[in-house]
Amino acid sequence: MMKGLKKWRLFSLLAVLTVFLSACTGEDYISTLKPAGEVGEDQYDLLIFSISIMTLVVVVVSFLYLYAFTKFRRSKLGDKHIPKQVEGSHTLEVIWAVIPIILLLILAVPTILSTYKFADVKAMDEVDEEGNKTALTVNVTAKLYWWEFEYPEQGIVTAQELVVPTNEKVYFNLKAADVKHSFWIPAVGGKMDNNVENVNKFWLEFGKESEGLKDGVFYGKCAELCGPSHALMDFKVKTVDRAAFDQWVAAMQATEGQTASVDSTDLGEATFAQSCLGCHAVSGVGTTGAMGPNLTTFGDRNRVAGVLEHSKESLENWISDPEAIKPGNLMTGKYSELSPEEISAVADYIMSLSVEK
Amino acid sequence: MSSVAVSKKKGFGAVLWDYLTTVDHKKLGVMYLFAGVLFFAIAGFEALLMRIQLMVPNNDFISAGLFNELLTMHGTTMLFLAATPLLFGFMNAIVPLQIGARDVAFPFLNSLGFWLFFLGALFLHLSFFMGGAPDAGWTSYASLSLYSPGHGIDFYVLGLQISGAGTLISGINFIVTIITMRAPGMTFMRMPLFTWTTLISSSLILFAFPPLTVGLFFMLVDRMFGANFFDHTMGGNTIIWEHLFWIFGHPEVYILVLPAFGLFSEIIPVFARKRLFGYSSMVFATILIGFLGFMVWAHHMFTVGMGPTANAIFAIATMAIAVPTGMKVFNWILTIWGGSIKVTVPMIYALGFIPSFVAGGVTGVMMATAPLDYQLHDSYFIVAHFHYVIVGGIVTAIFASMHYYWPIMFNRTLNEKLGFVTFWVFFIGFHLTFFLQHFLGLMGMPRRVFTFQADQGWDLFNYISSIGAIMMAIGVVLLVINVLLSVKTPPVNRRDYWGDGRSLEWSIQLPVPFYNFKQTPLVRGFDPCWLEKQEGNKEMMTYAEPLGDIHMPNNSILPLIMSIGLFIAAFGALYHPDGVSWSVPVIVIGLGITVLAMITRSVKDDHGFHVHVEEVIATEEHLYGKGGNK
């Protein structure tokens, strides 16, 4: 009878847990519970594995405890009852020391294996016969509230929207330019910090094209408190197949030398050249180290300033008062005040920058 | 002077003076308790504001900058200025009674410890009114804290330096007290678990606070004089701060949670009417947790890039802590197993503690799994984890102990019915707030965000979490009401309030006289109060000495003056980087006051005073009526 009851309790608990878990796995473009890629999947498996062990522990402890709690009540035993004063039990002490040790050893094996696996970046330096790097490397520089992505082998640089090929290991060099940040694409794999004094290396594999996702991109986050606008330091990740990626790289490389001219008849371009070009490049060819995000692919992007809807209106709002949108950003006050016409024209110009259209 | 305790009702001024100068561990315990409750309420209010801000996406209830100040002050206050003093309150009030001592080893230092803590805390909180609170998180990671404009971080550094000195002094005091002041027969292996955990946690303070002091000092000179310990552009290194901080910060968790374990190890046997199961393994587990607590700090830094070997080692070391902690949990369960459980308010907290703390513990093991931690680190999962440990483990212990020890501390009682209501409101609110945060973290929500966008699937859980926070706040308000109501309850005036007391403090007739024990007790075994009761001893105590003169310490205002000196000097240090002309004189005057007070203390011999036998008898008659303590 008791055994049947125990089983029934366990079963119903697991059933409730399953229903609950399936109800809250989050969105597939940001949730670690819907992994897309080798690292995220391994981590998800590790999560499920460790959660199973831990659920077992919680269930056993809770059961013992609830049983003792309901059975040994003074209201049942009477006020006069003096229980036997037990000192302890060596056998029991050994049992509940050894069982956790065994459980932890079981958990320790995949822990150690995965730790080394995720840190293995030897392939970063491998070269083919012609001396070209075989693996794609992206240098990620985190700056006060935006992200810069440099592709050193391809000689291109972009910002705020990372473009990567699917189904191959992509290697990352992580660094921060001002204060510490942390690079995290929850749906693809765990994070690593962008330190100010050293480069951190790790890899991710992107297992799914982002085309079908709600916004057509995975969401990326800064995970380390970095100032007032930490919560707004988002980036997006566009994953495409290798051919599309190569095409995108070629399009980026083709923007070499592209710039804005002060003498342009287009008010937008002229204003941009006057007020913005000092910090924002419009050519995708270059290296890391810009003052402001590279805008070459702005028209292809998904958000304005990482968080606003991708529209001309948001862009105008951003240009007219960035401080109201991202407090503490470094763009505020770097350019002279623009008239509404100029802002509108500049917004039109920036929205027209694209390598995909 | 307390030798004239047999006196008429004192005026307000005299009472105030008494508390400002007191060196009595019981009064300092009460002062720690109320200071702790004050800061607990402030930090709780800050949390409530943050949860209101996060109730709905894109909320503008609180601005980004203010939110960072609130999250920093919430964490800093809760750990340094609420949980620590609340536990110190119980340590002060109870540990000397548990070991049969008349006071702590260094009563003067005890007072100094309190005033340093209190003025440091006050200094830190003045930041809200003087140009902005610290805003780099309670961890205050160096790159961000050096970048932070204004004086917020200076308030953090100086405030914690002063209050940290107080904590260190108190820790040393408890170590010496427990080692040297035990009554005859109170061997180490007869000490109650709360005394044991106080001893271990004080030892952790002794070793953990110096790294923090060093780190804060580096930060101070970096900000005051541009010393460049942490400025990487000048050859400094910010990772050093992270190590220094966590070498302190991880043991700090055990500094807080071990006394909480100790408190529950007192409460559970009493209300199960059964000896604590596996006493020696409980002691061993406490020592082991304290030791391992120093070996695992880098698990806070798995994503910093220490390399796979360091990560793997710290992952395994961290998992090892689960073993002694598990031993404790099973020993508690086996204590109630076969007992006679009476569900009182302290006991219901203890019973709520076990599953909550286990839930917090197992998520800790999950976070120790380094490769998995890459996903969990700095997400809402960790927020859920440490609140399960801190609220589920430490806050429940504090609330339970308020009910449990109120009779000893105040000779009054807290209302049981209201206590149960408080428990359920707070406990349900707590799980509502934090359980779903595990899933928010897994769904990709980073921690320390002042807002979030609506399209990420986090709206519902954040909303529910905020409702839970409001319930917790109501619970705390109910507890405060209970405290206020207790003033009106009749005095307890007897021994062993709960009827099943086991350790020495329950043998004392309430109210506790200022000298605690008119005769030093003789401890004849483990659980002395229980032992004497079983043998039919109505006084519940055997004495080790005949009635004689009692040597007690004198009150002193010097600890307060020393602390005020440092408090003044801190303002000079704070404004020094601004280049104001008065900064150096203020530092000199402040430090001068402190040094003068120290010289006064050194030069003026203070041998304390003796309470003569007649005075003892008179006091007892005044407190307990004709016939004295019988």
TrEMBL record, chain A:
Enzyme class: translocase
Cofactor note: Binds a copper A center.
Substrates-to-products reaction catalysed: 4 Fe(II)-[cytochrome c] + O2 + 8 H(+)(in) = 4 Fe(III)-[cytochrome c] + 2 H2O + 4 H(+)(out)
Protein origin, superkingdom: Bacteria
Recorded GO CC terms: plasma membrane
EC numbers for this chain: 7.1.1.9
UniProt-listed PROSITE patterns: COX2 (PS00078), COX2_CUA (PS50857), COX2_TM (PS50999), CYTC (PS51007), PROKAR_LIPOPROTEIN (PS51257)
Boundaries of every Cytochrome c domain copy: 263-354
Record keyword Mitochondrion present: no
Membrane among keywords: yes
Cofactors (names): Cu cation
Transmembrane segment boundaries: 46-70, 91-113
Domain Cytochrome oxidase subunit II transmembrane region profile: 24-122
Bilayer topology: Multi-pass membrane protein
Keywords: Copper, Electron transport, Heme, Iron, Membrane, Metal-binding, Oxidoreductase, Respiratory chain, Translocase, Transmembrane, Transmembrane helix, Transport
Cytochrome oxidase subunit II copper A binding domain segment(s): 133-251
GO biological process: ATP synthesis coupled electron transport
Matching Gene3D superfamilies: 1.10.287.90, Cupredoxins - blue copper proteins
One term of GO molecular function: copper ion binding
Subcellular location: Cell membrane; Membrane
Primary localization class, coarse: membrane
UniProt-listed NCBIfam families: CoxB
Family (UniProt): Belongs to the cytochrome c oxidase subunit 2 family.
Role this protein plays: Subunits I and II form the functional core of the enzyme complex. Electrons originating in cytochrome c are transferred via heme a and Cu(A) to the binuclear center formed by heme a3 and Cu(B).
Name of the protein described by the UniProt record: Cytochrome c oxidase subunit 2
Lineage: Bacteria, Bacillati, Bacillota, Bacilli, Bacillales
Protein encoded by which gene: coxB
Automatic annotation (TrEMBL), chain B:
Catalytic activity: 4 Fe(II)-[cytochrome c] + O2 + 8 H(+)(in) = 4 Fe(III)-[cytochrome c] + 2 H2O + 4 H(+)(out)
E.C. numbers: 7.1.1.9
Top EC group: translocase
PROSITE patterns assigned to the protein according to its UniProt record, in alphabetical order: COX1, COX1_CUB
Pathway: Energy metabolism; oxidative phosphorylation
Main localization of the protein described in the UniProt heading: membrane
Superkingdom field: Bacteria
Membrane-related topology note: Multi-pass membrane protein
MF terms (GO), sorted A to Z: cytochrome-c oxidase activity; heme binding; metal ion binding
Localisation: Cell membrane
Keyword match Aminoacyl-tRNA synthetase: no
Swiss-Prot/TrEMBL keywords: Cell membrane, Copper, Electron transport, Heme, Iron, Membrane, Metal-binding, Respiratory chain, Translocase, Transmembrane, Transmembrane helix, Transport
Residue ranges of domain Cytochrome oxidase subunit I profile in the record: 11-524
TM region(s), chain numbering: 30-50, 70-91, 112-133, 153-181, 193-220, 240-264, 276-298, 310-334, 346-368, 380-406, 418-440, 460-485, 557-576, 582-600
Family statement: Belongs to the heme-copper respiratory oxidase family.
Name of the molecule in the record: Cytochrome c oxidase subunit 1
